[in-house]
Each structure stands twice: as C-alpha cells, then as structure tokens.
Amino acid sequence: MCCLGHYVKGHYTKSGKYVEGHDATNPDRTHDNNYSTKRNVNPHTHEPGTKKTFSND
User: Fold this and answer.
1) DSSP letters along 1-57, please?
2) Domain boundaries, the chain
3) Dist. CA 2–CA 18, nearest whole Å
C-alpha cells in the first residue's frame, strides 16, 4: 500500500506543547478519510475514529 500516509516528526506547537511523532494521512480536501474520523480505523493502532464527519453524520 503506497502513499496512504506519512510520518510526522515530534515537534513543539506555537503554544509550547510537545507533540509526539505520529503517522498521519496525506493532506487532501476532506476530513472524512482521516484516521480520527468516525467510521475509520487507524491501521497502526486499530483504534476506531471518534471525531464527527463533515458529511451526513
């Protein structure tokens, strides 16, 4: 499976909070295919998404 996502290195936010490195989906024009969105499952942790979709949900 190619090109479904990428690794984001750990970094500090503007507010000074440290965010651990993590896998992320590649940017596109929708939020509905993100690992954290309802009806999706993170392939690395097998955790279901919990965030509301922007379509009919």
Assistant:
1) --SSEEEE--EE-TTS-EE--EEEEPP-S-STTSTTBTT-B-TTT-PBP-BPPSS--
2) 7-57
3) 29
The Cα–Cα gap between 16 and 27 comes to 24
pTM above 0.85, yes or no: no
pLDDT band for position 53 (50/70/90)? confident
d(CA 35, CA 44): 10
CB 47 within 8 Å of CB 34: no
The rounded distance, in Å, linking the Cα atoms of 3 and 18 is 26
Query: For 5-50, how does the pLDDT look when each residue is reduced to its tens digit (9 = 90+)?
Result: 889 999 999 999 999 998 888 888 887 888 889 989 988 889 999 9
